[in-house]
Amino acid sequence: MGNPTMFESVSRYLMTSNRFTETLFEWSQPLKASVVIGANQNVAAELNLDYIRAHDIQITRRAGGGGAVYVDSGNLTYAFVDTDDGTNYLNFKKYATPIINVLKKLGVHAALSGRNDLTVDGKKFPGMAAFKIGNRFYCGGTLMVDVDLDAADKALKPPTSKLAAKGVKSVHSRVTNLRPYFNEEYRHISIKEIINMILQEVFETTDLQAIPTYVMQASDWQAVNQITNQDYQTDSWTMGKQYHDDYFHANHYDGVGNIEISFSVNDGIVSHAKIFGDFNQAAGNLKEIQTNITGVPFNQKSLEEAFSNSHLTDNIGQVTPTQMAELMLDSAYQDNFREK
Hints:
Blueprint: H1 4-16, E1 24-28, E2 34-37, H2 43-46, H3 49-54, E3 58-61, E4 69-71, E5 75-83, H4 92-106, E6 111-113, E7 117-120, E8 123-133, E9 136-144, H5 149-155, H6 160-166, H7 191-202, H8 218-232, H9 235-238, E10 247-253, E11 257-266, E12 269-277, H10 286-293, H11 300-308, H12 312-315, H13 321-329
Parallel strand pairs: 2-3
Antiparallel strand pairs: 1-5, 2-4, 5-9, 6-7, 7-8, 8-9, 10-11, 11-12
């Protein structure tokens, strides 16, 4: 699975097929440079599309939340597929722990920080995301071992609000590769060998042959290809619709992530609104919120009332109606991403 789109499709298949009920672990090493964005992110606001097109970089939109990441052959992508027991969905610590344990064996003082960032020396390498269908979900992330950081810096252009929240000025200054942190004895370890160490940690064995393994059959791949063609290869899904609204406001909220609103106001009334962001409630009903705030007066009281009836916790995360109203009303949150 050297293609992020295929990895997404396989993950969804493993979640939805009644053939699988146990906890699964999957991984992939991309064959070429790609950018993977979150389900609710705005492509135009997050990516340098001119650079991406000029360098033939693939764009994949994951079904899960989280932010945009640049991946290439120096990257390892992994995911757990599990059943929600009421405690493990969005429990990033649970699924980060075996990864962190392996990295510590390699000499990396890694930690889970914020809601879903994996860091060393305050830099990401990078983070984790999750997505749920029914009672099955995946939770995973990427490990930057030998990624081209210059290319990542040029391909990604996160909103200024997100960089400000991290206290940095560019992607390059907030992410890092892992290899420089490896102990000398592991300085030349291959990604394949790192995968083997993770497998041994996850399955609590030193015998790789003892790990139960499922080999995908032709019928499995047929189902995966159908998912890919239906859900992941259309421009409407990958690129999304671009809106030319009057305003684009963005802010970072601790424990939630970046929330962005593209909106227009005519004669003191909200005439259009579209919500974006890297929050992990990827399956939230953003249309409910957008519908509720469209057509209401552009003032604090009216907007708060509209947001109060929009199930913000379920649809976005722990953000209040007051915060959302202020996000729209305060010009300090304007993010002129088109000028980047």
